[in-house]
Every structure is written in structure tokens, then in C-alpha cells.
Design a protein that fits this description.
This protein is α+β, with helices and mostly antiparallel strands. The chain folds into three domains: 60 residues, Uridine Diphospho-n-acetylenolpyruvylglucosamine Reductase, domain 2 (2-Layer Sandwich), CATH 3.30.43; 113 residues, 2-Layer Sandwich (Uridine Diphospho-n-acetylenolpyruvylglucosamine Reductase, domain 3), CATH 3.30.465; 103 residues, UDP-N-acetylenolpyruvoylglucosamine reductase, C-terminal domain (Uridine Diphospho-n-acetylenolpyruvylglucosamine Reductase, domain 1, Alpha-Beta Complex). 25% of the residues lie in helices and 28% in strands. The chain has eight helices and 20 strands. The strands form six sheets. A five-stranded antiparallel beta sheet has the order 6-7-12-10-11. β8 and β9 form a beta hairpin. α4 crosses α5. It starts with a strand and ends with a strand. It binds flavin-adenine dinucleotide. Flavin-adenine dinucleotide binds next to β3, β8, β12 and β13. The site of flavin-adenine dinucleotide has 33 residues, from β3, β8, β12 and β13.
Length: 332
């Protein structure tokens, strides 16, 4: 029987019920939950990458395991282990305040540290995998602990083993990152460079890069506290060079980026060009400043947002022959 509302725990702010809702503060809480409540189990961190399309028959564990601990250090690096329920942006701010580089481009990404490896979060030319060292996870079926090193995680573009073979099988309790004592910056992204130029900053500090990124993000993306959303709803589709060239002939202004020996198309451009930007239906909308972001435009039901997502997917497929797959995890 579903009886606990997940509305406060998802950034779309939609209502959906689950069977049990347990706050997890320690590994012992996980063992107790596995012994006390029946499966299936679902894990929620900040709820910023899920769409609850309906009620779920599951025991939901809300990861609240906190703490940032320095485990090891040498002349060049510091190894930190972080509780999976720690807020991601807090970790980035902590690293900057300790003058450790690697995470600054990932400033202001919502959500928890434990979720970061799941889709290998990325922004402004950097993915969390570049500093990732290892993680500790507990199996939701056996209760056994497993350590994953970088090679085990099979990180890719918004992808990892936790979205494929090991999807839904583990709760990540701790993640370790190797941060650099050398100031190691990546400002190759045009928007960052331009903004640094505007501010007449030639040799930026980690804090200045973070500030620029926070300001760019705040100007482009809706704040989930004000407008319910989960960031980019769709992934950018990867296509062959031939498929890209055939689209380029029809749409010379198409936006795409090289991706290995393939091309990554801008899903935002495809959706915008198909006429969806600013569209709203049944309380679900496409953000007026960013076609990749679906918003809660007054609905209580994630089903309305999922319907809009499916309508967009079908339209993009018909118009361009390209499938835009959700980046967001859809439940219920
Ligand atoms: C405004 C906005 C901007 C965003 N910008 C970006 C961006 O620039 N780049 C980017 O990559 N993402 C972005 N996102 C998406 C989101 O912030 C990330 O995916 C983030 O890592 C989700 O963290 P969370 O704790 O909220 O995960 P949740 O939404 O709680 O969960 C997401 C998935 O991870 C699983 N999960 C969560 N925690 C654990 C755990 N401890 N163990 C096992 N499984 C777990 C859940 O079961 C679910 O499948 C954005 C979202 C918003 C709302």
C-alpha cells in the first residue's frame, strides 16, 4: 500500500506515493532497512534527476550519509572520501576553500555526491570521472559491500555501470575523489572564456571560475525552488558521421559536436527547431529559455510531464529520424 508522499523529495515537485520512506544516516541504517522492510528498494538523494510519473510500490531510502574526510595526501594530491548523502555543491565549495582543483567546473550541479557517479555528472567540459577514485556500495539484495574503482564503473557520457548492468542494485554510501594541489583549470568552454574576458580576468582562481560558472548557470537554468525541473531532460543523441552529414544537408544550421568518431547532436537545438520551446500542456512545459529543460508548469502529476516528454520524443523522431532519450530517471 502506498502511503508516503515523495513530493518534498523531487525537484519537479510532483506528488507520488511510495510504500515506505526511510532516512539513511549510516551503513547500519541500510542493514536495518534491508532486514525490516520488503523489497523492491529505491534510492533517492536530492531527487534532482528523477521524474515520478506515478506511485511506486517500493521502500525508498533517502540517502543522508554525510561527511568529507581527507584519507591520504602527497605533494600533489589529496584523496577525500565523501558521504553519499553530502550535497554535491558543498563538496565543490569545500574543495575550492582548500585550494584543491578538479571539481570547480561542476559547481552548482544539484543533488548528492552518491548520485554523481550514477550518470557521471558533467558540465563545462568536465565530468566527475576525471577526479573519481573509487566508491563504496551496498547491495540491495545481499547487503554485501562492494568497492568500485574507476575501471569498474565504465563511465561514459551521462553513463556508468549503474545505469546498465548494476542499475538499481546498489546504494552508494561513499565516494572518493583524488583532488589536485596544483591549480589545474579547464576554461576551454567558450561561455566561460567569454565571461572571464568580460570580467577582465586573465589568470582565474578556482573561486573565480566557480563564480563565473554559477552565474552562467543561474542565468540559463530555472531554479528548482522556483520552477520545478530536473535540468536537461534529454541526452544529446550520438549519431554516425553519415547520419550527421545527411541532417546537415537539410539543416545547415544544425548544432553538433565531434564525439570520438561520431557526432553529438544538440538535443536542445532539435527540440527548439521542432517548435517546442515555451510550449505548455496540462501543467507541463518546455522552459522558455532552454528547450532541453522540461518544467512543472502547475501540475501535481509527473504523468503530465512524462506525456509531454513522450510527445517531444515522437515529434523529434518524425522530423529528424533521431531519438532523444531521457537523461532523467523515470519511475512509476
Ligand atoms: C537545475 C538542474 C541542473 C542540472 N544540471 C546538471 C548538469 O549540469 N550536469 C549533470 O550531469 N546533471 C545535471 N542535473 C541533474 C542532477 O543534478 C544530477 O543527475 C545529480 O547527480 C542527481 O543527484 P540526486 O542526488 O538529486 O539524484 P536523484 O535524483 O535522487 O537520483 C538519481 C538517480 O540516482 C540514483 N541514486 C541516487 N543516489 C544514489 C545512491 N546513493 N546510490 C545508488 N543510487 C543512487 C537514484 O536511484 C536515481 O536512479 C541538473 C539538475 C537540475 C535540477
Amino acid at each position: 500500500m502506498n502511503k508516503f508522499s515523495l513530493q518534498p523529495f523531487n525537484t519537479f515537485g510532483v506528488d507520488a506515493q511510495c510504500s515506505n520512506l526511510i532516512k539513511i544516516y549510516s551503513e547500519q541504517d541500510i542493514y536495518d532497512t534491508l532486514l525490516t522492510y520488503g523489497d523492491p528498494y529505491k534510492v533517492v538523494g536530492g531527487g534532482s534527476n528523477i521524474l515520478l510519473a506515478g506511485d511506486i510500490e517500493a521502500t525508498v531510502m533517502l540517502n543522508q550519509i554525510k561527511g568529507i574526510q581527507v584519507i591520504d595526501e602527497d605533494d600533489n594530491h589529496v584523496l577525500v572520501t565523501v558521504g553519499g548523502g553530502e550535497n554535491w555543491h558543498n563538496l565543490v565549495m569545500w574543495s575550492i576553500s582548500h585550494n584543491l582543483s578538479g571539481l570547480q567546473n561542476l559547481s552548482l550541479i544539484p543533488g548528492s555526491v552518491g548520485a554523481a557517479p550514477i550518470q557521471n555528472i558533467g558540465a563545462y567540459g568536465v565530468e566527475q570521472s576525471s577526479c573519481f577514485h573509487s566508491l563504496r556500495a551496498i547491495s540491495l539484495t545481499s547487503g554485501l559491500t562492494k568497492l568500485y574503482y574507476r575501471e569498474d564503473c565504465k563511465f561514459g557520457y551521462r553513463d556508468s555501470i549503474f545505469k546498465k548492468l548494476d542499475a538499481g542494485k546498489y546504494i552508494i554510501t561513499h565516494v572518493s575523489y583524488m583532488l589536485s594541489k596544483e591549480v589545474n583549470i579547464n576554461v576551454s568552454y567558450g561561455a566561460i572564456r567569454n565571461e572571464l574576458n568580460n570580467r577582465k580576468i586573465e589568470t582565474p582562481t578556482l573561486k573565480q571560475i566557480s563564480n563565473v560558472i554559477c552565474d552562467i548557470r543561474a542565468s540559463k537554468l530555472p531554479d528548482p525552488i522556483v520552477v520545478g525541473n530536473a535540468g536537461s531532460f534529454f541526452k544529446n543523441p550520438i549519431v554516425t558521421i553519415e547520419a550527421y552529414e545527411s541532417l546537415l544537408q537539410k539543416y545547415p544550421e544544425i548544432v553538433a559536436f565531434p564525439f570520438g568518431d561520431q557526432m553529438k547532436l544538440s538535443a536542445g537545438w532539435l527540440i527548439d527547431r521542432a517548435g517546442w520551446k515555451g510550449h505548455s500542456q496540462n501543467g507541463a512545459g518546455v522552459y522558455k529559455n532552454h528547450a532541453l529543460v522540461l518544467i512543472n508548469d502547475g501540475t501535481n502529476s509527473g504523468g503530465d510531464i512524462w506525456q509531454l516528454a513522450m510527445d517531444i520524443q515522437a515529434d523529434v523522431l518524425t522530423k529528424y529520424g533521431v531519438e532523444v532519450a531521457p537523461e532523467v530517471n523515470v519511475w512509476g
